[in-house]
């Protein structure tokens, strides 16, 4: 039951992301997608397998729901918040938006726990906040570095 709802929400977010105007170059979007996907996927599996804070459900639909969430939904949210942050000029407001992004992404993970897509073992909401803070900040720092490189090359 969770899988069709997840697919519908993700498709709606993807379509709305694709049809809205973006302030980022396509290279930046692909770079952010790859970086956030790699960081999210590797850290998530460390938490799932090594630290045993969370466990994936044995139900095949729930497993694919979480896997597609790691591949599509979380990177999409990260890119979307970074794109919105380009509209903001004040650094304090920009960092507040990034904190809001961390809270929203951690809340999405909490919704997966409530829907039994992920089974909690030794999980705490603060662990999720720490994990997503690291992921979003690393993605942001790498994106800023890549953006400076693109500016030096004259691509943006």
What's the number of domains? Answer: 1
Strands in their spatial order, largest beta sheet: 1-2
Helix content: over 70%
Strands, total number: 2
- Portion in beta strands: under 5%
Give the terminus-to-terminus CA distance: 44 Å
Query: What string gives the helices and strands in order?
Result: HHEHHEH
Label the overall shape: globular
Radius of gyration: 16 Å
Q: Helix/strand/pairing class, anyone?
A: mainly alpha
Largest sheet: number of strands, sense, barrel closure: 2 strands, antiparallel
Uncertain runs are: none
How many H/I helical runs? 5
Average of per-residue pLDDT values: 86
Describe the fold and architecture.
The protein is mostly helical. The protein has one domain (2-7, 31-153). The chain is 78% helix and 4% strand. The chain has five helices and two strands. It has helices at residues 2-19, 26-50, 60-85, 91-114, 125-153, and strands at 54-56, 118-120. A two-stranded antiparallel ribbon has the order 1-2. Helix 3 runs antiparallel to helix 4 (91-114). The longest helix is centred in the last third of the chain and has 29 residues, at 125-153.
SSE topology:
Blueprint lengths: L1 H18 L6 H25 L3 E3 L3 H26 L5 H24 L3 E3 L4 H29 L3
Antiparallel strand pairs: 1-2
Characteristic key phrases:
4% strand; two-stranded antiparallel ribbon; mainly alpha; 156 residues; single chain
């Amino acid at each position: 039951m969770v899988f069709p709802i997840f697919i519908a929400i993700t498709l709606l977010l993807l379509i709305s992301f694709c049809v809205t105007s973006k302030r980022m170059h396509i290279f930046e979007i692909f770079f952010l997608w790859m970086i956030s996907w790699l960081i999210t996927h590797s850290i998530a599996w460390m938490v799932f397998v090594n630290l045993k804070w969370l466990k994936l459900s044995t139900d095949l639909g729930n497993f694919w729901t979480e896997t597609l969430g790691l591949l599509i939904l979380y990177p999409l949210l990260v890119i979307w918040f970074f794109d919105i942050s380009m509209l903001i000029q004040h650094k304090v407001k920009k960092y507040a938006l990034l904190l809001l992004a961390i809270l929203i992404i951690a809340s999405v993970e909490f919704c997966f726990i409530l829907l039994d897509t992920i089974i909690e073992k030794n999980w705490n909401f603060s662990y999720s906040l720490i994990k997503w803070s690291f992921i979003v900040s690393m993605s942001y720092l790498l994106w800023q570095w890549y953006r400076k490189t693109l500016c030096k090359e004259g691509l943006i």
